[in-house]
């Protein structure tokens, strides 16, 4: 249920969602004493950052600028990029193109070379005029290497040619490859021994082809059960690769394998427990190991010990951490590091910067006291705040952060997959007094609603240094309380519930299970309740969004042997399927990157590709055509409400989960902040938390990216401002959509929806009706899933199942 900034819960592709726990298997052998004062001898790195101004034709409007590759070669940075220029007015509309239209006039591949201060040295066309550009790299001598496809002058047939250029851009040689494929190649590398390696696409399932330096085919690197992640690299004169299993059901198991460079065989390897997929996406292979940046700093993987070692902690710099979301770092020596910084904030115009870090003789912040912030998925806006706070010399404190997603906390196997083990590990740290001053984004874990560990923030809100509750959604504050105390202050929040087709199901927002029975009985025979009515999913709805109704963490008690739980199981068994195989369900959505569409999400009805062996269910199409009545949706912003209201044929109604008590729509903090009772800086911590409720901060915190909403703002004035702006933006996009349809364009194969000012009133009313907040315990939910399977298969009684759930869940709570 942890979503934070990783994406919309039902409408977008979540990238690398299971690859997040970077370095989770590294162990701490001893408890380190927490530093409270910065010393002169503490490590610190000065930083210089230079934006690489990618050369383009400034006389024309750029549609897209895409970075294909960027590498540091010696004392130069070599960037390969593509530029799509906007077509003239009317060209392309309805498929119209003038006779003299040439695609290559509006699409170009270029290579730009910069020095280490970001100055442009040279720029060149990446491919010969007669050739089709495929991919680019550099070799160990610093030469640019381009793979192009062009016609052979002897045979007239297409051939793949590797073009080597010196630093002045002059062609040194061309090598024709004995091609073993009939598709385009998008990856090329020149190995240490000058052999040439190419790959059709960067995926472990795509074989790698190896040629000698003259282009003669030697072999391909492939295996029936394992594929190569990233590049080959040399250690002690031998070639190695990191591999992963090709079996989609076996999970992510990375291994270090030697490659037989005479046959291409992937030899048996050893497990790499400390490596995860996200780390590999930003990895740089150096002579002494693998380097990768995380949210906390630069890590080095030691192949001999299978350990991740922190080389630089970003707290040891004055960098604005918002710049470091995607970094590839190249070590020059132990005192100097260079990095290429990628900026994807504008996906139509990607940007690059060059970062240089040098070790300082003395720490310039010596004498400052440290305020610690620990969190799960710390958002970039918080890093920006910390950067500005630390830059203000009037503060006696310096904020240092740690994101536990990327920390070296020890977890069990379950915790690595669903964060419950990680949360338990952090919980034990807090109990031992080894915690930060401020804890960020732990509100969803019910065990963290603890009066012994956290400060009640209500006295701060209502005190002389607080704020006026009427200016905020007090319903969300109250819903976030535990026994009248507010431990985790919601900065922004999401809404948790169901989007129903109001023409199919006439139900109230706080409907209960009796209302649910009546609504289902009235459904037409050709309308399904939900796309895939699995018992376990329905049970989680009928239990409600707050697991703490069944678990009392303070008293270490569980209450699953209850009438409400029996009723929830009966309803799930009545309407759900116990033996239905899992399916790939999705609501197809896309963002049409064209001027006027303003990054608004549209519905796509095309079928998506499912996982191997799984059925694919296009939920968006079923909702849009009225074939199913409802679907579980978490709303993260006003854009979401406009989109999903339209997906359900323009008659969507957002309601809570149908529970025995009719709890209504729930809230879940998109970002929350809590103060530890053990903190020495509680008043200072409150000042930090309070600052996030200013109008400026609330606007910034609820900004959405291309992949995720930042949450609804707590401040009412910001809600009104941003919501009405959203409605206007959505309607402008809808007008562009209609115009494109009239011109015969497909508008990106999307369906766009009209918004209404009344939607702002609807969402405000929903927010004001909230009286519960969502809490989750994945370990307990796993027990429920395991034990109720027998009940849904008619092999166990509800009494027996709930007794076992109570015992197992109570044991977990006690162990914590």
Structure, explained:
The structure is a single chain. With 816 residues, the protein is of the alpha+beta class. Among the domains are: 178 residues, no CATH class; 151 residues, 3-Layer(aba) Sandwich (D-Maltodextrin-Binding Protein, domain 2); 233 residues, no CATH class. The chain is 22% helix and 28% strand. The protein is built from 17 helices and 39 strands. The strands form 10 sheets. Strands 25, 26, 27, 28, 35, 36, 37, 38 and 39 form a 9-stranded mixed sheet that branches. Strands 1-24-23-22 form a 4-stranded antiparallel sheet, with no helix packed on it.
- Shape category: globular
Q: Into which percentage range does the β-strand content fall? A: 25-35%
Radius of gyration: 28 Å
The whole-number mean of residue pLDDT values reads 86
Category from helices, strands and their pairing:
alpha+beta
Number of strands: 39
Summarize the amount of helix as a percent range: 10-25%
Q: How is the biggest beta sheet arranged?
A: 9 strands, mixed
Low-confidence stretches: 1-31, 411-417
N-to-C span: 20 Å
**Helical segment tally?**
17
